[in-house]
Specification:
This protein has 578 residues and is of the alpha/beta class. 52% of the residues lie in helices and 14% in strands. The protein is built from 21 helices and 17 strands. The strands form five sheets. It has a six-stranded antiparallel β-sheet with strand order 3-2-1-6-5-4, sandwiched between helices. A five-stranded parallel β-sheet has the order 8-11-14-7-15. It has a two-stranded antiparallel sheet with strand order 9-10. Helix 19 (526-544) crosses helix 20 (549-556). The chain is elongated. The chain starts with a helix and ends in a 9-residue tail after the last helix. Bound molecules: adenosine-5'-triphosphate and magnesium ion.
Length: 578
């Protein structure tokens, strides 16, 4: 009657089918053997699985059909099975499931009492997890050691125990002090082990008044089947709990990482302009003020929005970003505020909007300049009164979110063109942070270039240690229309192209090469290009050997005299490179 027994039977049946199939097919064709074997293995796996479940169900039904006590009508037992199946399907909460199991048992087979105990492997004690017909105080008292009393013995031996009359059995500890009122009646006690992967993890026990013609064996069998189901519920619960724990640990770790990542100290730049940005972030982060971040594309608006959130007290709450250009107006509205079921065609379910999801945290509305006039009115209301309604809903929802908006558009121009509401502008312009374009903070270019060089070298497992002087010249004289994003992409590309320790001018994108050519005025001759390259290589080598000419000459395959001549020709000062 155990699962193992069922499983063995399934394997035997499957093996017979497999054997019969094999014999006839092998005769049929030897060529198809490998494919056939693979198919067989898969089919046998499926057959075994199906038989396993079929056999288990059959066993349970046969058991229900065979037995004739505990309930008088077989339909009650089918009802019990249905109730148990529902208890398993209804909840992933172990306690609720186990309570529902005991309740179903009581409904269909009338219990005096029922308990499910589980072994705590750490304390090595057996505790009542759920009980039916016991007060909370009695339940608390039900703690047993392994081997202690009937429950402890069942856990220790893994074997069920039936006590036909508990008043005559001195193994009862009466720890829960709950059996006084049963005096006078013959009460039988059944205790069966709950086993998982061969180990006893607890017990299922019931007290039941003995009726005439009671079949103890059949009752025990029923409880054994239910104990097997309980074991599966415990297993599932363990998996769910471990998944939950892992997810919440992962969540905490990621939040911590984000916090560190978006720490102001991790932002690169020492120019006065960026220092002012750091100061503003620190000043505003703690408050709830709406922040407006302005700046050209790629200047770091997203980064600043994150930094404001992760340096605020809302850091442990959600940070929700909405890209306002990515969605059409109607979709954007329901994305922001959510919608009720049936609010519009296709709204088959109620949807929680991003304002609600950001509850307690921060919502970042990127590209606010692209908001439609209709949505601007709704946003104005959220900012003013901190409330909104879901699309198609009448309920007013209070909102506790900090709003950060960003744009690269000229909002003042947009107001003049009647594309942006003036009242909304004043509402969002409470605390503006302006991010200067990279060309206006040239001091930061090399700092950032080095930062990205280190980052991408590490990511690509390369040892690139520096950027050559001509390449530096090109980087610093370029006007960077795509700002930091363009610089980041440019260095990533250089790292991918570079197979050396040094990023050189040829590793930089064509847009930067063009600048160099146009700066030099006319087209350069081949000789000029070669000389330029030669100068670059000599400088690199001297840098590498801290200005020592002998070493550099060796590396370049030149005599010291020739190197000296070229150093003079190109106006290089080795001492400055040491
Ligand atoms: N101070 C900084 N230090 C390091 N990296 C930065 C800094 N500022 C920006 N970056 C990086 O530059 C890239 C572009 O930044 P971000 O996406 O924040 O720009 P943006 O202004 O939001 O651009 P867009 O307007 O196109 O959305 C990002 O990868 C970001 O990490
Ligand atoms: Mg952005």
């Amino acid at each position: 009657m155990t699962i193992k027994h069922n499983f063995d039977r399934s394997i035997t049946v499957a093996a017979l089918i497999f054997n019969a199939g094999m014999t006839s097919r092998i005769r049929h064709s030897a060529k198809m053997l490998p494919i056939f074997c693979l198919k067989c293995v898969v089919s046998v796996g499926i057959i075994i699985t199906k038989l396993y479940f079929l056999d288990f169900q059959l066993q349970f039904c046969m058991f229900l059909a065979d037995r004739n006590d505990m309930t008088t009508k077989p339909s009650k037992e089918v009802q019990l099975l249905a109730d148990l199946a529902k208890a398993f399907a209804d909840s992933l909460d172990l306690e609720l499931t186990l309570k529902a199991i005991l309740k179903s048992l009581d409904t269909h087979v009338k219990l005096q009492k029922g308990t499910i105990t589980l072994l705590n492997p750490e304390t090595e004690t057996i505790n009542i997890k759920v009980a039916h017909g016991l007060s909370e105080e009695s339940k608390e008292l039900g703690i047993y050691k392994i081997g202690e009393g009937i429950t402890g013995t069942v856990v220790q031996t893994g074997k069920e125990i039936i006590v036909p009359d508990i008043s005559r059995d001195n193994r009862f500890l009466h720890r829960t002090h709950s059996r006084k009122e049963t005096a006078g009646k013959q009460i039988a006690f059944y205790c069966v082990p709950i086993k998982l992967e061969g180990k006893t993890i607890g017990t299922l026990s019931v007290d039941r008044q003995v009726k005439k013609g009671d079949d103890f064996e059949a009752n025990l069998n029923l409880l054994n089947v239910i104990a097997t189901m309980v074991a599966q519920a415990v297993k599932l619960n363990k998996l769910v709990e471990s998944d939950k724990r892992q997810l919440s640990e992962e969540n905490l770790r990621l939040r911590q990482e984000l916090r560190t990542h978006f720490n102001i100290d991790n932002m690169v730049g020492t120019s006065n302009a960026i220092k002012e940005v750091y100061r503003l972030i620190e000043q505003v982060a703690e408050s709830n003020a709406t922040v407006l971040i302005r700046g050209e594309s790629g200047t770091g608006k997203d980064l600043v929005a994150h930094a404001v959130h992760y340096n605020s007290q809302r850091a442990n709450k959600p940070f929700i970003k909405v890209n306002c250009t990515a969605l059409p107006e109607t979709l954007l509205e329901s994305e922001l505020f959510g919608h009720e079921k049936g609010a519009f065609t296709g709204a088959t379910e109620k949807k929680i909007g991003r304002f609600e999801r950001a509850g307690g945290g921060t919502i970042f509305l990127d590209e606010i300049g692209d908001f439609s006039m209709n949505l601007q009115v709704k946003l104005l209301r959220v900012i003013q009164f901190r409330e909104f309604e879901r699309v198609g809903g009448g309920e007013t929802i209070k909102s506790n979110v900090r709003i950060i908006v960003a744009t690269n558009k000229n909002l003042e121009e947009q107001i003049k063109e009647k594309l942006f509401r003036e009242d909304l502008y004043y509402r969002i312009n409470v605390f503006p942070i302006f991010l200067p374009p990279l060309r206006e903070r040239k001091d930061d270019i090399m700092l950032m270039a080095d930062y990205f060089l280190e980052k991408f070298s590490k990511e690509n497992n390369k040892r690139i240690t520096r950027i050559s002087t001509p390449a530096i010249e090109m980087l610093t004289s370029y006007h960077w229309p795509g700002n930091i994003r363009e610089l980041e992409n440019c260095i990533e590309r250089a790292v991918l192209l570079c197979n050396d320790e040094v990023v050189r001018s040829e590793h930089l994108p064509p847009s930067l090469q063009m600048i160099r050519k146009s700066e030099s005025g006319a087209k350069r001759s081949l000789i000029e290009i070669i000389e330029n390259k030669e100068r670059e290589l000599i400088i690199d080598s001297l840098k590498k050997f801290a200005g020592r000419q002998r070493k550099a000459a060796e590396e370049l395959g030149l005599t010291e005299r020739i190197l000296g001549y070229k150093i003079k020709k190109y106006g290089i000062f080795p001492k400055l490179l040491s």
